[in-house]
Specification:
CATH topology: Maltoporin, Chain A
Radius of gyration: 26 Å
CATH architecture: Beta Barrel
Strand content: over 45%
Structural class: mainly beta
Distance between the termini: 27 Å
CATH class: Mainly Beta
Largest sheet: 22 strands, antiparallel, barrel
Number of helices: 5
Helix content: under 10%
Number of domains: 1
Shape: globular
Number of strands: 43
């Protein structure tokens, strides 16, 4: 809990670079409008001196994204927080569910069946963190053991290093809590037959030791044929209060997921073929994703004094993943013939991550410095193989041996090709081995950040991070190796002006980079020329101006205008020389209103407008021009309430520089009803896609467009002991 004293000063000042002035008008209009609208609210708050703010502070002892105890209003960056209560009430089960109702980001179809998010036009499958540490496991992340989810938009290299170019998602884990005993069980079932069971148990083993166990088990079903799967996760945690100033958190998580892979449907005439939306373009028995992972975490925090606190964390993770699939590679609308491709991709990875940080508050004259210093060391060993599909009707020596054509039917018969020949697919035929690699990665990082309270109204943020990224890839199949060492410095600057304690105007600038090895770490080349040559990292820079307003103790309004530029190296196609960098330019506007309006009404509204341009001057993929969402919860009485959610996504390009191939715009409506049978027993009914609209939320490529969820109902029973 934090006490904020209201200061009714009327001075307004906002410093910003000259080249942004022409683009600030929109933001100024939004900010001034908000100030005029909430004038009566501010007038009311001036009648008392203190506002109690609870749950609005990101604390360092949570080991979360910001690593310093900072009020959200004092962060020069656009961010969103989704609490465990939000997850429960909205019926969310995965990261993608959260993304739908968050401004500035949208989902993508992740190859390998893993979380994929487009942050402000930058697609990422790797910028996921847990308790501020890189979450390097390739899967769809469940939410059973999550206290809250933090979405930070814009480059975040200072705290997270490589990647984080458009944003990051950080999950704050549920940890053992001293001094409390509680037990909660959630049981759910939906209209497709999917079930889920989760339990959360916390108990005190002694005055200084607490134990907590989170466990979940899901059976997966949906509106698509053949789709099924199972997820299991168990996460015991222990908190040990070593003394009054020292805490040790220990955690172990075991993950076992298996599910059918659905790569979506083809396109024709510039859009997804809606008539094929009920057909699964995949092998009923062969499209499979299996993930098994173990993650061990230890976090030690110590308060040296009232003004100094340090933390040390160690994360050891290992996972095995097998991804196997067939998918539509091309489609002929006139003949109704589809060409199928695919691959078998097993991966093994071990990670060891050591990180430490120190937060120190110092006073120099009238200024207060909150100085954050830290380092991170990462060791990753990765083994990967990739087999193309082998169709028995083809010659493995032929260039197209991994593809076969079939007549489209419901379901598709993959035992007979389009010409009537009997065929079958093999996933691990030795002649179809495309690649086999072993990769060794070493990363060393150091960072420093100074959060300076210059006056009661002015805050300056300065920081920088140094990263050394050392990677070696051994090509086992071709008996060759490639290596590269990149050393990069990523600066960060922020300026915050607060005319009142509940109002902030800010400007921020940051840079980031991403090595060209990708998430799979399989190669360092551009893939076309210059054998043995390596490409330098991608570089990103971003500027943002924004406005934040706390309307009351639990309701906030934020808006931001941003622009970003990227530089991506490539080959000239004829030699091993680098071409002039190409890149992506993105600019946009975001607005978010979230919190408790009164004791009955809770609202979460978001809007974003994003425009991008590739180096070729065309439209980039998967950037809807506009998106908006609203989720409103109304409690009729303490025992009964309802909710209504609406989200809209504008049309977007399926591929870069192809304006004639688009994902259509769509609007989806969700609803929920809540009923407390007793104080310790709650019943909840969620309805997704109330209008049963057929829509296409994202795609992986031209003929792999995801079909959105059909209408479904889910009944959840929650019992507290």
């Amino acid at each position: 809990m934090i006490i904020i004293t209201i200061n009714n000063k009327s001075q307004y000042c906002f410093l910003i670079r000259d080249n942004f002035m022409k683009k600030v008008r929109l933001l100024n209009v939004a900010a001034l409008s908000a100030i005029f609208v909430v004038g009566p609210v501010l007038a009311e708050t001036s009648d008392f001196e203190e506002i109690l703010v609870k749950g609005r502070v990101l604390q360092s002892d949570q080991m979360n994204a910001l690593k310093t105890p900072t009020l959200i209003i004092n962060v020069p960056q656009s961010l969103s927080i989704v609490t465990d209560e939000d997850v429960r009430k909205k019926g969310f089960k995965e990261i993608g569910d959260i993304v739908r109702y968050t401004p500035g980001i949208n989902t993508s179809l992740g190859e390998g069946h893993r979380d994929a998010v487009v942050f402000r036009g930058v697609r990422s499958t790797a910028d996921f963190y847990q308790d501020g540490v890189r979450d390097d496991v390739q899967y769809y992340r469940p939410l059973y053991n999550v206290e809250q989810v933090e979405v930070l938009r814009g480059p975040n290299a200072l705290l997270f290093g490589r990647g984080g170019t458009g944003g990051i998602i950080n999950r704050v884990s549920k940890k053992a809590v001293n001094g409390q005993d509680f037990k909660t069980v959630d049981m759910g079932i939906d209209s497709f037959g999917a079930t889920d069971l989760a339990a959360d148990v916390n108990t005190n083993l002694s005055d200084s030791v607490a134990f907590r166990l989170n466990v979940h088990s899901d059976s997966l079903e949906n509106h698509r044929d053949f789709y099924n799967g199972d997820r299991f996760g168990i996460n015991p945690t222990v908190n040990i209060a070593l003394d009054a100033d020292t805490d040790l958190d220990l955690s172990y998580e075991y993950i076992d997921h298996e599910r059918f892979i659905d790569r979506g449907i083809p396109t024709a005439n510039g859009e997804p073929v809606k008539a094929l939306s009920d057909i699964v373009f995949g092998d009923k028995d062969g499209n499979l994703n299996v993930v098994e992972a173990s993650v061990l975490r230890a976090a030690l925090s110590h308060r040296f004094s009232e003004s100094t606190k340090g933390s040390l964390s160690l994360t050891s993770s290992s996972f095995e993943k097998m991804y196997q699939n067939t998918y539509a590679n091309s489609y002929d609308l006139d003949t109704n013939i589809v060409e199928m491709d695919g691959y078998h991709d097993p991966t093994e990875r071990d990670n060891l991550i050591l990180s430490a940080s120190l937060v120190n508050e110092l006073n120099f004259g009238n200024m207060t410095h909150t100085i954050l210093t830290g380092f991170e060391s990462v060791k990753t060993d990765n083994t990967n193989k990739r087999f193309n599909t082998y169709w028995t009707t083809n010659d493995c020596a032929a260039s197209n041996y991994d593809r076969e054509s079939f007549a489209v039917a419901d379901p598709i018969d993959f035992s007979v090709n389009a010409t009537g020949e009997a065929t079958a697919v093999e996933y691990t035929n030795s002649c179809a081995l495309k690649s086999s690699t072993e990769t060794d990665i070493r990363v060393s990082s150091f960072y420093i950040q100074d959060h300076i309270d210059v006056t009661d109204n002015l805050i300056v943020l300065l920081g920088g991070r140094y990263d050394k990224f050392d990677i070696k890839v051994d090509d086992i199949k071709n008996d060759s190796s490639a290596a590269r060492v990149d050393t990069e410095f990523s600066p960060r600057f922020g300026l915050i002006y607060k005319p009142q304690n509940n109002v902030s105007l800010y400007y921020s600038y940051s840079e980031s980079f991403a090595p060209r090895s990708g998430e799979q770490y399989k190669k360092l080349t551009g893939g076309t020329a210059g054998s043995g040559e390596t490409l330098k990292p991608d570089y990103y820079e971003s500027s943002e101006i924004g406005f934040k307003l706390d309307l009351n103790k639990s309701l906030s309004l934020t808006s931001a205008y941003f622009e970003s530029e990227s530089e991506i190296a490539g080959y000239d196609g004829t030699s091993s020389d680098y071409i002039t960098e190409r890149g992506l330019s993105v600019e946009g506007f975001e607005l978010e209103l979230k919190g408790q309006v009164n004791e009955n009404l809770n609202v979460a509204f978001s809007y974003s407008n994003v425009d991008g341009e590739t180096a070729e001057g065309g439209q980039p993929r998967e950037i809807p021009e506009s998106t908006y969402s609203i989720w409103t919860t109304y409690d009729i009485n303490p025992n009964f309430g309802w909710a209504l959610g609406v989200m809209h996504q504008g049309e977007s390009a399926v591929k870069d520089n192809n304006p004639d191939l688009l994902l259509p715009a769509y609007t989806r409506v969700d609803a929920a009803v809540y009923y407390s049978i007793a104080d310790d027993l709650k019943l909840q009914l969620n309805i997704e896609n109330l209008s049963d609209e057929v829509y296409f939320p994202h795609s992986h490529s031209t003929h792999q467009v995801a079909v959105g969820e059909a209408r479904s109902t889910r009944l959840l029973l929650s019992k507290t002991f």
